[in-house]
Amino acid sequence: MRGDFEAYLNDEFRDESGNLDLNALLALEDEADMDVAVIMPTPQPNPRNDELAAAIRGNQRTLGCALVHPTEPEPVEQVKLAANEWGMPGIKLMPAIHNYNVDDPIVRPVVEAARDYGLIISIHSGPNNCHPNRIGTVASWVPETPIIMDHMGFPDDLDAAISAAKANKNISLGTTILRFHRRWGTDPDTVVPTEVKSAVDVLGPERIVFGSNLPEYRPIQVINALKRLELGDNAEALIFGDNLARIYGLA
User: Fold this and answer.
1) What is the mean pLDDT of each run of 10 residues along the chain (251 residues)?
2) Whole domain around residue 127: which residue ranges?
3) Neighbours of 51 (CB within 10 A)
4) pTM of the predicted model as reported, rounded to 2 decimal places
């Protein structure tokens, strides 16, 4: 199985009538032979989880992931809605956009609710309020709940991301890092993202999960970049989908 842990059905996928066009997104996943994709709403202050749910409802290739804002009223209710009404098996935390410290005590009821409802947690990582060390604290609150750390701690601290994952067995690192190579002037169609190999060398391929950050990058671009690492067929099979299947209970 092949799967993408992070794709956004955002405004770039609206048709002429203003409706979200899931088929346009899945066509880009098809280009990389992706069987399933975890779909998230536009990362904005007031995420439209309900609109996303309606757009993907009934599609067997999609796994919904609600964007939950812990500082807004009744965030635990959003987790409950994700699980019970929207049929979404995951939630996403975006401290960089919603402006809170990811390890603030206000976040704990949200991740504990995700644990209680059996949801997977994806967390945006980066500097300051979403530093990998803070994500490690969150992981320690819910040690049996899988957490995918987006961006592998980039742009500042890959080493801390690897250390957090080493200390917390429920953390996996997501491969959404091509944006940083472009920032550093490297063409994503030729880059060799050796940072991913560094993580594989320490954690093993079982702890690395493929993600594209679609539409920022096409899944095929990220697949090709990772293939240039020459990790081997077994490691690629795990990273490109088998790990996601295990985390989301698809296998």
Assistant:
1) 97 94 98 98 90 96 97 94 97 95 98 98 96 98 98 91 98 91 78 94 98 95 96 98 98 68
2) 3-247
3) 14
4) 0.96
